[in-house]
Write a structure and sequence with these properties.
The protein is mainly β and 154 residues long. It has no helices and 10 strands. 17% of the residues are buried.
Length: 154
């Protein structure tokens, strides 16, 4: 495993009179680990207090056209898994500190790790999520692998 620094940016997007407007933006930098097996990349990192999931670990399995995400640890009562593949729906349970909620994801777009210049790589996921009719939103997640000496851990 290789130690890395990650910049993670999450955006909740809403439509307003046909134009996209970013509503909530969350960004943090954290240490993580990365390793490759064949054409698959594995990334693991601790969640931040900013995400509301401090104490959890997120693991990503990245291939050219699909990303699997798994969150484990406290404050979740059970593990949460999500799968992102362009044009496909994923059904599952989303664990919250208050208990599980049924979830439906529709992936609009997903890019595997792509070169972003200066030795960096970037992963992007654009998806719609519905949590048992309680909440629906369009989200964009970007994960940038930076050189280990860049950024400060928050």
């Amino acid at each position: 495993m290789k130690d890395i620094m990650l910049r993670i940016t999450g955006k909740t997007v809403r439509q307003d009179e046909g134009a996209e407007k970013n509503e909530d933006v969350m960004e943090f930098v954290t240490a993580g680990q990365l390793y490759h097996r064949g054409t698959t990349t594995f990334i693991k990192y601790p969640e931040s207090e900013l995400s509301g999931l401090e104490g959890c670990t997120t693991s990503l399995i990245i291939t050219k056209d699909k990303v699997k995400m798994r969150r484990t640890g406290q404050p979740l009562a059970a593990d949460t898994e999500m799968e992102f593949k362009k044009g496909e729906r994923f059904y599952g349970m989303y664990e919250t500190p208050f208990g599980p909620v049924s979830m439906e994801l529709l992936t609009n777009d997903v890019t595997g790790l792509e070169e972003a210049g200066e030795g960096r790589q970037k992963l992007s996921i654009d998806y719609h999520i519905s949590l048992r009719g309680l909440m629906e939103s369009r989200n964009k997640l970007e994960l940038e692998i930076m050189h280990p000496s860049e950024g400060k851990i928050q």
